[in-house]
Structure formats: structure tokens, C-alpha cells
Design brief:
The complex is a heterodimer of chains A (164) and B (722). With 164 residues, chain A is α+β, with helices and mostly antiparallel strands. Chain A is built from six helices and five strands. In chain A, 39% of the residues lie in helices and 12% in strands. Chain B contains 17 helices and 29 strands. In chain B, a hairpin with a 2-residue loop joins strand 6 (149-152) and strand 7 (155-158). Chain B starts with 13 loop residues before the first strand and ends with a strand. The relative contact order of chain B is 0.11. Mean pLDDT of chain B is 94; it is low at 1-9 and 34-42. The chains are: A alpha+beta (164), B alpha+beta (722). The interface between A and B is large, with 58 and 61 residues.
């Protein structure tokens, strides 16, 4: 089947019920998306499918066919996404293992609600961090609020520039 | 205030230097780092390299798992070197080189909040020695007295002649200078890198998916292994039927290892291996442990709480029984803390690649030497032939500190496969939660008297707990006493003339391990709540009741006062809000906390504020210390609210995060951190923050509800978290 991941297209020969996570990690060899619970509880495996956050450990690859899949590696070039930059500025990660999923969840939230309230953050940021970096995640999201639109605008301009 | 130990430890180390291309490298022998120390082995351990392009490479021996010492330990070297932090890069010490050089880098383990406090002296001396040799080289080249040369921010200068230079220009010459016999370390007042909140060097890789953990190893031709161990600890495979499983796509082999301790499925993809594993019918020999349950375990512990004799603690003094008999009031209370699982986010796993002349290993570990050695032992080969690749650990918390179960499994699987086949073995979350080395279950009984003035008169405590040292490590207990289980009791910050405390080891078949903050994760639940119970009985404020018993313990008093002042303890909280306070002395540091909360009629706890303070003596990286306190608070509240591993039919009931709840972002309280370093000593940071949170929370719950919670978790008492 054909998968569109981070602006590339891959032809994979796998069982339709194989979770997308394992295709991403072990077939496509994109290691930024993590396995931690396997039952969609913790969100370490969060990726975007057509812009929506999805826990890929419990999402059959067949359901992703023909859709646009974005992993942490495809979020930006050189970690330039405002959420990634805010994560560095606020020194959010500790061990870092859950942070790909946390960042994907935060980006999705900010795409829908550029100025999220605390309640919005509480509702959207449900991934587990065993190191307990929640305070800084909240601060980083508030800090970046409003600036994601600029980032995407700049990307569009760059892409157009490259095409012309 | 008086500061103890204002003279810093000045252990002397034999310094050695060596020329490297265009520069020099400096190391020093760490006493006790290897068995051949007395015979003056030629082992060279490089801690710092100066290159001709002015770059400085600082070596890091321990593990980064989120605690931040990959950044803070090199800050110690760089400061006494007077380097510019921007010219510094950090590299891991190679474990194989360490093994081949008589373990010259000393202790590599990352446990017990030790990295800074147990290596600060030699790391700072490495920096100071390299600086001294650069100065000597500059003095020779410029033909000026070394005393006239100053070094600051990577710049060597001679004021009188106006000359200055970067490090690189003198690096090669420095390699030829005699190594200094002694160097003096900077006065803390002159530190310019220690104490700075530099960003952690590993964080950029954690935001773009490029951070490599043990489970991320990938090699050409790699195969994948899924494992099942007997749900009842210690059980083995009696027989198995894999006929259906073998027919599945990608399955390469199915076999047992380690005399049946685990059954393994090997496939061309881990998911396929795991799916097939679920279809193997395994007949387990549970070896009699299938009759053990929480009920039988608790009964066994209660018997030990009631038993007459225990192993006495070293700080016993006076006659507690007489003092209590003469007291105005007497209080007794029993407390219970359950087994807990570490559950780091990265599951257990290891990749092993056996080739003819070498074996390569990738695994996240807090004990790289133990991991390497476990592979050598499993394969029956010299440790010198094993190469362990250093990676970030996706959380450790004690799970990866010397328990090398999964690393051994990966080696045994690799040995079973055709030579040259790399194999990645990975556990599921369920396997991790049900085959952990658990925080010991423990029960505590404390009895104390109060005199007519509300002073504690006589104190008795019994600790009934498993012993990690004895059960996991096989360390024989000295007269039956285990100090780790009794942390928190062996040095009371409260002045009580007559005290008697003892310990009884309670061994069950449940494996035990070091869990973040170890004994200090549970003993304060009993000690600091009982102090509150005494304060209530005496009709006194719990903060001032503590202070009045701490006249002789200035550092305990200091941190408690700092936190109480930060919260404004003596002013009442807002209507409907209640506070709890607690103080602890873990890992060479002093920590105290106040929790402010409200509880509604339905038992819903709303934590409004947590104020957490630490005095670690010196603060190397303040932002990182705050991060550790924040994380430790989350850790403690998760354990308090929901943490419980229970045993039925000899096996763990909890299996994943749906029934072993961990705190999520929405539940994170407002958190304030108080850094109150007094100087004069070096304490730990990663673990101490947790210790006072649990009792401060439970003391606040008592203040709010009048319910004294003497067993955990809180969900068993009908409490939930808002």
C-alpha cells in the first residue's frame, strides 16, 4: 500500500492491521515516534494524520492509506517550528522520550486554537510524561500562542519561492 | 548561620596528561577507581581535551536520563578551567575503553543522586589542572612569571605586556609541561559557570526526534525479539505449543532461554514477533508462588510489625519505653506504603550484535559497566570484547540501575541466532509493569509520648520492609539491619532524647529494586505524618511544633523556614484552603514542602499550590534543579493518588497505564520552587525533591478533612484529583 509520510511517498508491503507506529519505526525507520504503552494510553506515538493527532500504536496502517501523515521529523526543517523552539526556550524535556508525542499534540492544539486557554491545554495535552514536565509544557504553549500562523505563512512563502 | 564543612573536600588525585594532535588531554587517577590503584597502573582517563582550534571537549562518564548532569557535570570542569562555555562540547566516555583501562573513569553508575556530589572533586581538579598547564605553557612562551597570568572565559592574558591568547595556541606546549602536583580549586565566590542556568545540551535533540535511545538502535539485517516471562515471579516454561505462531508471517524462530525463564519469538519485525507470541500456548511452572496474594503478604508484614524483636538502628539512645511510660500523652500509629513500579516511558530492551571478534550492545542503562558485564557473562566472553554504545535513557528512576535482566536476555537470544545476526529485544509495557523490580512494600509503626509542654518525650519506631540490598543484590545484612529501608529514621532532625527504632526484613517472592528516592520515597509518609499527629495532640501548629524540636539541626530548620516564609505560613490561606508541611534530609540535601489544597464533600482534591524547597549545598545549574523539583513533585503525587502494585495468585494485577495511573498535565498543580543553597556541602538533586511532597500532601488532606490517611494510595480512601 502507499503511504504519504512527511511529504514523501512510500510503498510498503505489510499486513493491513499492523499499527502505523510499527510501520513508521521499523519499516520506514523514522525513530522519532516512540513506543511506550501500545494501548493508546500515553501518546508517546502521536503523529498527525491529515492534521489530526493520532496515537499511532493503536491505528491500523490501512486506515492511513492515502492520507497525509506527519511525524516529528516532518514537522519542520532544523527544529524551527515555534513549538519546538518554545520547548527549547523553556527547557521542557527531561529524558525526552515522550516529547515527540507531546510536541505533536501541542502543534495540533495550536493549529486549531492559536490562543488556547488553560482549559484548552488541559483538554488537548493528555499524553503522559513520567519525568513530569507538565508545568513547562503549559508555559511553552502559552508562550508560543499566536505565533504558529506566522510560521506556516513563512513556510508557504519559502515553498513558493523555491518553486519559482 | 553556621555552615558545617566549609572546608571543601580536597582529595588529591594523580594527574596525567598526554599529547593529542595539536593539543593535549588531561586525566587523573581516581582513588578506588580500580583494583590496581595501589600498583600505580598506567591507566589514563581523559576528562578534558584542549584542541588547537580552541575547542574544549569535556568527557562525561555517567548517563543522561533527564536528570541534567550531562550538562551540569561538565560545568564543574569548565569552571575551574576558566573556559568559555560556548567553546565546550561534551562527549561520553567509552565504556569498553573504561573496562580496558582498569575502570579508570571511576564510578559510571547514575544512581542515588550522586553524579555531582560524588564526582565534583575530581572533575573540578581536572579543570584546574588543565588550566595550570595552559598557564605554565603561556608563561614559558611569553617568558613571564606564571603568577602574572590570568585566565577568564577561555582567554589567557598577561596584563603587563598586553598579551593574550586562546587556549588552542598553547595546547601543544601544555602537553609538554610537568603536571602540577597540587592545584587549588576556585572559591565558590569566583564561580562563573557553576551556578549558571545554561540550557541542557541534550534538549535540542529531544524536540526534533533525533535523540537516540536504546530502543532506537537499527542495524542492517536486524531481527526482532518479543519475550514472555512467567507471570508468577520465578516461574519457568514447562512446555509450549507454538504450532500456530510459527505459521505467521515473518516468524523466524521460537525458543526458550535461561533454563525456561523466558520464551522468545524472533521475527523480521517486532510487531509480528509480539503478535505471534500472543498465540503461543505456554504451560508455566509457577513453583508454588501462585498462592501468594496481597492478603497473605499484608498478613506477613503485620506479623513483623507485631513481632517482639528487630534489628536496632544505630541512632538509638536513652530509654524510650521509660520516657513514653512517663509521658503526659501517648500516640501510636501504623502506616503502609505499597509496592510501586518504575514505569519509565521507554520500555525495557536491548540490541545485541555478535560478531567474530566483538559484541556490540545498545541499551538504555544507568549502569553501563553492569550492562556490558551482563552481556559478557551471558556469552561467556571477556568483558574487553564487548562494546556498549552510549545512548540517552528514556527515563531510569532506578529501573535501569544494575538490574540487567533484559540485557542478558538479548545476549542469550543473539547467541541462539546465527552468528552475525543483530537482534533487538523489546519488552511490552505489560512485561515491564509485571516484571519490574518494585519499590518495596513497607509498614511502619511509630509510638511516642508528649510531655505537659507539648514536647516529644520518647520515640519508638518499627520498620517492616523488604530489603533491596539483600534480596536484589545478595548483600548480607549486618545484624539484620538495612539502612536503606530505614532512611528517614536513622537521623531524625528532631531532638528526642530517648528513642528506640528497629527493622525487620520481610522477604517475599516479589522482586525489589531501587525506585526514585528509595527509602526516602516512603519513610517520610510515616515520620512526617506522625510528627503532624503529635502536633495536633499537643494543640500546636505543625510548622512551629517542628521548629521547636529542631534547635540543634540548623540546616533542617533553615530549609523549613525558607519554605514556610515563601508560602507565608503564618498567614492563613484563603477560605476553604488548607496546608500541609513536611521536611526531609535525603541524599545529602535538605528538602521541605508545603501543599495547599481544598477537598470537596465528594473527596475531590484540588491542589492549589505546591511550594518545594531544596538546600543542596551548592546549586550547579539552577534551572535544572528547579526542573528536577517540578518533576519530583509530579512523581510523588502520582504515587500518592494512584500508585499501587498488587499481587494475586502470585502475579502482578496491574498491566499498563489504564490501571497504573500516572499524573497528566491537567492535574499539574501550580508549583513554586525555592532554591536555598547555603554552601559548605554537596547534596543530591534528582531524588530529594520527592521526599517531603507525600507527607505534606497527606498533612494538608488531614487539615482539610480531619481524615488521617495512614495507607496509600489515596484512591483507596475515596479521594480523587481535580
Amino acid at each position: 500500500m502507499e503511504l504519504h509520510v512527511n511529504n514523501a511517498t512510500y510503498e510498503v508491503d505489510v499486513e493491513p492491521e499492523m499499527p502505523l507506529l510499527w510501520v513508521i519505526r521499523d519499516i520506514l525507520n523514522l525513530k522519532g515516534t516512540k513506543f511506550a504503552c501500545g494501548i493508546a494510553q500515553c501518546g508517546a506515538c502521536t503523529v498527525h494524520i491529515d492534521g489530526e493527532p493520532v496515537r499511532s500504536c493503536s491505528y491500523p496502517v490501512s486506515a492511513a492509506e492515502g492520507k497525509l501523515i506527519t511525524t516529528i521529523e516532518g514537522l519542520s526543517e532544523n527544529a524551527s517550528h515555534p513549538v519546538q523552539q518554545a520547548w527549547v526556550k523553556h527547557q521542557v524535556p527531561q529524558c525526552g522520550y515522550c516529547q515527540s508525542g507531546q510536541i505533536m499534540a501541542a502543534v495540533s492544539l495550536l493549529n486549531k486554537k492559536p490562543q488556547p486557554t488553560d482549559a484548552d491545554i488541559n483538554a488537548a495535552m493528555t499524553n503522559i510524561c513520567r519525568c513530569g514536565t507538565y508545568k513547562r509544557m503549559r508555559e511553552a504553549i502559552h508562550d508560543v500562542a499566536g505565533s504558529t500562523a506566522e510560521f506556516y505563512q513563512a513556510q508557504v512563502v519559502t515553498e513558493r519561492g523555491e518553486q519559482s | 548561620m553556621n555552615k558545617p564543612n566549609t572546608n571543601l573536600s580536597r582529595r588529591k588525585f594523580l594527574i596525567s596528561s598526554t599529547a593529542i594532535s595539536g593539543g593535549f588531554a588531561l586525566g587523573l587517577q581516581i582513588p578506588g577507581a580500580n583494583a590496581q590503584q595501589e600498583s600505580q597502573s598506567n591507566a589514563i582517563n581523559i576528562w578534558v581535551e584542549i584542541h588547537e582550534d580552541d575547542s574544549v571537549i569535556i568527557k562525561y562518564a555517567r548517563t543522561e536520563m533527564g536528570q541534567g548532569s550531562l550538562t551540569s557535570a561538565p560545568q564543574l570542569v569548565a569552571d575551574d578551567l576558566d573556559a568559555d562555555w560556548n567553546q565546550v562540547s561534551i562527549e561520553y566516555v567509552d565504556v569498553n575503553e573504561h573496562i580496558r583501562n582498569d575502570r579508570a573513569w571511576g564510578d559510571m553508575v547514575t544512581v542515588g543522586s550522586q553524579t555531582i556530589r560524588r564526582s565534583q572533586d575530581y572533575l573540578r581538579q581536572a579543570g584546574a589542572s588543565a588550566r595550570a598547564m595552559l598557564v605554565a605553557a603561556a608563561a614559558q612562551a611569553w617568558d613571564v612569571p606564571a603568577e602574572e597570568i590570568t585566565v577568564a572565559n577561555g582567554d589567557i592574558s598577561h596584563e603587563a605586556s598586553g598579551r593574550h591568547s586562546g587556549f588552542g595556541a598553547f595546547a601543544a606546549l601544555a602537553a609538554t609541561m610537568p603536571v602540577p602536583e597540587t592545584v587549588s580549586l576556585k572559591d565558590p565566590a569566583d564561580w562563573h559557570i557553576i551556578g549558571q542556568p545554561f540550557p541542557r545540551v541534550d534538549i535540542p535533540a529531544s524536540v526534533d526526534g533525533s535523540q537516540i535511545y536504546g530502543v532506537d538502535a537499527e542495524l542492517p539485517g536486524m531481527v526482532y525479539a518479543a519475550v514472555a516471562q512467567c507471570p508468577v515471579f520465578g516461574g519457568t516454561v514447562r512446555s509450549f505449543d507454538a504450532s500456530t505462531a510459527r505459521e505467521r508471517r515473518g516468524i523466524m524462530d521460537i525458543f526458550t532461554i535461561d533454563d525456561g525463564l523466558a520464551l522468545v519469538v524472533v521475527a523480521d519485525n517486532w510487531w509480528r514477533a509480539k503478535q505471534a507470541l500472543d498465540q503461543v500456548n505456554i504451560d508455566w511452572d509457577t513453583k508454588g508462588n501462585e498462592t501468594v496474594s496481597n492478603e497473605t503478604i499484608l498478613e506477613f508484614f503485620r506479623e513483623n510489625l507485631d513481632a517482639a524483636d528487630g534489628a536496632p538502628m544505630p541512632n538509638n539512645a536513652g530509654d524510650a519505653d521509660v520516657a513514653i511510660a512517663d509521658a503526659d500523652q501517648v500516640l501510636t500509629a501504623d502506616y503502609y506504603t505499597p509496592y510501586l513500579s518504575h514505569s519509565p516511558m521507554e520500555p525495557m530492551g536491548a540490541t545485541v550484535h555478535i560478531q567474530e571478534d566483538r559484541v556490540d550492545v545498545w541499551t538504555s542503562t544507568q549502569a553501563p559497566v553492569a550492562s556490558l558485564t551482563s552481556v559478557a557473562t551471558a556469552l561467556g566472553i571477556p568483558a574487553e570484547d564487548v562494546y556498549l554504545h552510549r545512548v540517552q535513557a528514556g527515563g531510569g528512576f532506578g529501573r535501569r540501575g544494575g538490574s540487567t535482566d533484559y540485557t542478558r536476555q538479548a545476549a542469550l537470544v543473539a547467541q541462539t541466532l546465527p552468528t552475525g545476526t543483530p537482534v533487538k529485544l523489546l519488552w511490552t509495557r505489560e512485561e515491564d509493569m509485571q516484571h519490574d523490580f518494585y519499590r518495596p512494600l513497607a509498614m511502619y509503626r511509630i509510638k511516642a509520648g508528649l510531655d505537659a509542654d507539648g514536647k516529644i518525650q520518647g520515640w519508638r519506631a518499627r520498620v517492616a520492609s523488604g530489603s533491596i540490598l539483600n534480596q536484589m543484590r545478595g548483600v548480607p545484612l549486618n545484624n539484620g539491619f538495612d539502612g536503606i529501608s530505614c532512611e528517614g529514621f536513622t537521623r531524625l532532625p528532631y531532638q528526642i532524647e530517648d528513642q528506640f527504632q528497629d527493622f525487620r526484613q520481610c522477604a517475599t517472592h516479589v522482586p525489589l529494586g531501587f525506585w526514585r528516592t528509595v527509602g526516602w520515597s516512603q519513610t517520610p509518609f510515616a515520620r512526617e505524618q506522625f510528627i503532624d499527629e503529635l502536633a495536633v495532640a499537643a494543640g500546636e501548629d505543625p510548622y512551629h511544633f517542628r521548629l521547636k524540636h529542631m534547635a540543634e539541626d540548623e540546616l533542617s530548620r533553615h530549609i523549613l523556614e525558607q519554605v514556610a516564609n515563601a508560602v507565608g505560613w503564618d498567614e492563613a490561606p484563603a477560605e476553604g484552603r488548607f496546608r500541609g508541611i513536611a521536611t526531609t534530609e535525603p541524599y545529602g540535601s535538605f528538602t521541605a514542602a508545603v501543599v495547599e489544597l481544598s477537598v470537596n464533600d465528594a473527596g475531590v482534591i484540588n491542589i492549589h499550590r505546591v511550594i518545594q524547597g531544596i538546600n543542596p549545598g551548592y546549586v550547579v545549574n539552577p534551572d535544572n534543579v528547579r526542573a528536577q523539583l517540578e518533576g519530583a513533585t509530579v512523581w510523588a503525587i502520582s504515587a500518592a493518588m494512584w500508585g499501587e502494585i498488587t499481587i494475586e495468585e502470585g502475579r502482578v494485577q496491574e498491566s499498563n497505564f489504564h490501571n497504573y495511573r500516572l499524573m497528566r498535565l491537567a492535574e499539574m498543580p501550580v508549583m513554586e520552587t525555592v532554591l536555598a543553597p547555603t554552601g559548605g556541602f554537596w547534596g543530591g538533586v534528582g531524588e530529594p525533591g520527592q521526599a517531603p511532597i507525600l507527607p505534606a500532601l497527606c498533612n494538608a488532606i488531614y487539615a482539610a478533612t480531619g481524615t488521617r490517611v495512614r495507607s496509600l494510595p489515596l484512591q483507596q480512601h475515596g479521594f480523587t484529583l481535580a
